[in-house]
Specification:
77% of the residues lie in helices and 0% in strands.
Amino acid sequence: MTPGDGARRRPKQARARATVDAILEGAKIAIASYGFLRATTHKIASVAGISVGTLYQYFPDKQAVFGNLLDHLSDALLTGLKDAAAEPSLESIEEIATAVLRTYVGALRDNREAVVQLLHQRPLLEGPEKLRRRHALQHAFIERALDARARLEVDHDFAAYLLLKAVWAVALNVVEERPEALDDGRLERELVRLVTAYLRSAWQKEQPSEQSQLREVC
C-alpha cells in the first residue's frame, strides 16, 4: 500500500510498506471502536503496535491517515470487483451480478463500522475532485463490464451511471439503517434481483433475420 494525498512519505522498502499497512489497519480498528472524533493518532498507533512518532513519520495527522484508509478500502474493493467480473466461468447475467455484488456486499460487511464512520467524514477526508475521480474509476469498471458482456438498448455509459448510483445508495443506507440485511443475505439477494431485472429489461431484442421476416410475409 502506498500512501496517497496527505502522506508525509511514500514507503519504498518492504518494512516501510508493512508499517504503513499496520497504521491503516490500526486506523480501521480505531475508527470502528472509538469513532472518528475519539480515534486519536495515539490510539491508532497503539492499536497498530507502533509509537506515535513512527506514525508521524508517514502521516502528518489523523485526517491524512483516515483519508488514506478510505483510499485503501476503495482500491481494494475495485480490485475485488474487477477480479469477480473477469471470472471466465460466469456466463449468465445472474451469475455475473451475483459474483460482483457478493464481493461488494462482503467488503461492506467486513468493514461496516469503519465504512459508516469514514463516510460521515467524507467531506473532510476528500474533496469533490477526488470523489469525482473515484466515481469515474468505478463508472469505467461497470461500463467496461457492460461492453464486454452486455447488449443494452440504452447506451452503456448511462446504464453504468444508473447502476453505480442505485447500488451505492441502497447499500450505504442498508449499512446504516438495516445492517442485519448484510448478514442474512437479503442485501446481496435483492441487489442481484434489482440489477438483473434492469439489465434484462434493457437488453437488446434480437432482430428477426431476413429469412424469418420472409416466412412471416408468406
